[in-house]
Amino acid sequence: MPMIRGIERKCLEMIKQSAKDMHPREFLALLSTGNRKDVISELVLIPRMMYGKRQATFNIYMVPFDRRIVGTVHSHPSGIPKPSEGDMHTFMKYGKVHIIIGYPYEDDSWRAYDYNGKEIDMEVIE
Ligand SMILES: [Zn+2]
Asked: Which of 3, 57, 102, 109 could form a disulfide with 79 if both were Cys (CB 3.0 to 4.6 A apart)?
């Protein structure tokens, strides 16, 4: 699988808006490259039934098999975009790029991580 070098601006805007809409609850979706190979360009919303009760974790066995889906995005209403222990478990099990966006959900309040929870550079493609 090719490396993911960035995320489309319109996709990032959708993440910011969705996180704001869900606040103070967590927003969670899957990241897809759509028709592009190495750029995240689409969000895949997952049904509510897949959510955990207390936080926005989900059942990975219910994720449709689709090789364009490369990871997850979720929000931290607390404002700190660092992976929790629960996040780390999800990261290691599923996907290779994970975005966390913290309140107030602006351009400087998100980070991208690899499956190990190591922060990675993600270019915003205008
Ligand atoms: Zn989290």
From this structure: 102
